[in-house]
User: What shape does this take?
Amino acid sequence: MVGDQYLLLPGPTPIPDRVKRAMSKPMINHRGMEFRIMLEYIIEELKAIHKTKGDIAIFPASGTGGLEAAIVNFVSPGDKVLSISSGVFGDRWAEIAENFGAQVERVDFPWGQSVDPQIIKEKLIKDTNANIKAILVTQNETSTGIYNDLKSIGEAIGSHPALLMVDAISGLATIDMDMDDWNLDVVISGSQKAFMIPPGIAIMAYNKKALAAHANCSGPRFYWDLTAVRKYLEKGQTSVTPPISLYFGLEEALIMFKEEGLENIISRHRNYRDIVRCAIKALGLELMAADHCASPTVTAVFAPPDIGANKIREMMYKDFNIVLAGGQQNLDNKIFRFGHLGYVRELDLVASIAALEITLSRVGYPVNLGHSVSKALECLKENIT
Amino acid sequence: MVGDQYLLLPGPTPIPDRVKRAMSKPMINHRGMEFRIMLEYIIEELKAIHKTKGDIAIFPASGTGGLEAAIVNFVSPGDKVLSISSGVFGDRWAEIAENFGAQVERVDFPWGQSVDPQIIKEKLIKDTNANIKAILVTQNETSTGIYNDLKSIGEAIGSHPALLMVDAISGLATIDMDMDDWNLDVVISGSQKAFMIPPGIAIMAYNKKALAAHANCSGPRFYWDLTAVRKYLEKGQTSVTPPISLYFGLEEALIMFKEEGLENIISRHRNYRDIVRCAIKALGLELMAADHCASPTVTAVFAPPDIGANKIREMMYKDFNIVLAGGQQNLDNKIFRFGHLGYVRELDLVASIAALEITLSRVGYPVNLGHSVSKALECLKENIT
Assistant: This one.
């Protein structure tokens, strides 16, 4: 089929035209006043989105770089770290900490489930000497389509002095989050998610408690060094050359954020999720995440085993120019994932459900054409405000 | 003055319109076939530019990230490293190696001079047990405007087993280089230089000898890990999310490279240098680099001390919308730097010389208006082929 691709991934997301135009502006001197004004604007807006009075560091990197930055700036080799995971990205963060010499205790929850704050609480109660220096959690586990309740996790940690470090790469600004009120010490995010710009920028928000830990941290670093970031920021500069075109895009995206309003962005993503999930249920397919922890940015769906997820993805791509994500690692060919993150139109989700109906029907799965679409429309109708 | 800015920095450089348009293409799945085809094309073209049969790794990062990647992939903590420096960027690479635990012996040459391969040779002759594992050199020292003769440095190393690792960030594709023939083992570059695209991509070329060193390297890493890069590359993917818009730009820039031809690009940069230097000499200002090692991408000029470099830069910016770089560290206010790198027109350099004449004249420096411009024109006339 002709026409633009439907890019339904949990990042990168479609890019708004005005962001593309902003990214096409001529280069500027990244050590000059124009850049400084832009950088300071971006940082203030990012603080507002995080709901923090803490600080922001921006790295030329993918989100994974932001996770590495958090480890080398706040965790010293030998430090004990509690890593809470229920998927690929939770595991990745544990692995980064291990590679940099942390003593990582992994607390794993079944894939497709959110983490249980009570278990974290019990672990910390036993840590009477406060040996645990940091707790790594994932806000939104893209590999399985669940999100974790950061507020409860913050409460479970209570007065334990460990830093609570959050991978919010695919969740920030799509799920309610109050960094200061919920005692989140470090929060990592990336540009190609809710920010609607291409990959290449990692963002790290951190508070005073994290900064105090940084002062005594012996993690090996140069590129990610927060001390250098802070020194240059005083001059309105970055410690390494910034990806200027992506900064232009981020600046424009943040203006769009302000126009729409953070609460509206969060409820828009909730609506995406609800549209997709009610349609998938109507199709009789199994969802990986339970309702109470279902991610607003990505929905993982078990394919009928006799068909396989990759066959469905291939047909959706070939016949309708719809790009869905596959399953990672053990989930390959078992699940397909609808990304509904960033600059996505509700009606494109409805169209994709329609395409899924046709696709499933063509490979012999029993489908009542139009039925799941009608459920999606009912859900969409409810959600129009 | 109205009109586009003259951006005369040693990076970022002006971006060609067709590169901007390429960067505006819609996002694609970075785990899909479209990306794979682009990645494989880019890597083949990059190999040709390096003149290597070795391999290429691409990181979402500024050039400094590429330097860190080289250290953590090829140098283990405790390894002895020889760092050859005559400026800010040479020093930076030594510092990165030190931060990651290498035992760095610094061999410093005066700023504004190229390094003497004979001294490197003598150091290596004394290293009879081959304790030195790597030698760090800078191809083009942006802070002072000199370049080093990598061929002679390669010859000076001879059969010593140390890896020769080159920071070619601001020099690649503007100075003759034959990676395989000259025994360069690791070569780092960045997107915002000769490649004429915005910052955000670091490139690391490496050969089999480097890969063998990597196999035994205990440098702490995750984000930069070459083993992961190579594993994903087999599937036509990157180990972390790639900055897709910059890849689109790089692909287009590499097509432009092929159209112009590498030899022509190198001679174009040599012409830039010659135009600027003959005009500066005609103005009676002192150049930081001697003729034999003068960089083709950036020219550092001593300002008359009673005027100061920053005053000149401010006036050039305010009156003519020309952006020049300043001096770094101890050179602040002493030198200004003409960047002539990437997508620059020769006549823009002539125009900037004209603006410099007027600026100097207005602050009381004796200028025969038009004299240095005429010298620049004579040089330009010579160089038209």
